[in-house]
Amino acid sequence: QQPVQSPQAVILREGEDAVINCSSSKALYSVHWYRQKHGEAPVFLMILLKGGEQKGHEKISASFNEKKQQSSLYLTASQLSYSGTYFCGTERGRQGGSEKLVFGKGTKLTVNP
Amino acid sequence: DARVTQTPRHKVTEMGQEVTMRCQPILGHNTVFWYRQTMMQGLELLAYFRNRAPLDDSGMPKDRFSAEMPDATLATLKIQPSEPRDSAVYFCASGLRGNEQFFGPGTRLTVL
Fold first, then answer.
1. Fewer CB within a 10 Å sphere, N or C end of chain A?
2. In this complex, do A41 and B91 lie within 8 Å of one another by their Cβ atoms?
């Protein structure tokens, strides 16, 4: 039930691009993306909802393929501040008010000067 | 600058002792989540509340863990008795239904 993230780790130089993928074996209602820096709490980046609605930060882009239960996070022109571990959290549905998120194991992104 | 606060930030205790972690959600948020993070398991949802009512605690070991919201400004997570395998970082998060979750700084628990 835990979504699978790939790659597990990626190292970039400043200015390079990266794509982080999140895949689930179950039908999804939404996908949430968070970034966590070492020793800190996860911080919200984006929500992608079934039907195409997105909520998030302007400088982050992502896609959600409902049929394939896959989401991708696109980091372009990376900056040193992008370094951290990126988690996707998947939501199966909202029946009965449930909005449980199951998080993947994370993708560690390192951006070097 | 509204933030989720958690106390204590660090806790070292011996096996068998009771541990209580506290969380103050952001004022106005109606949903509160408790997560546990370990290297092996990652970020796991333990329990969550909406409008102070427990909605799901299926992620919590029922025999030793309990979570409550005595009022809208306080959520608690208790472990009794604690075991070494409970060592982890425990995060509280709050939000409004269907929107982003704001995480607190976490409580780093070490059970010897």
1. C
2. yes
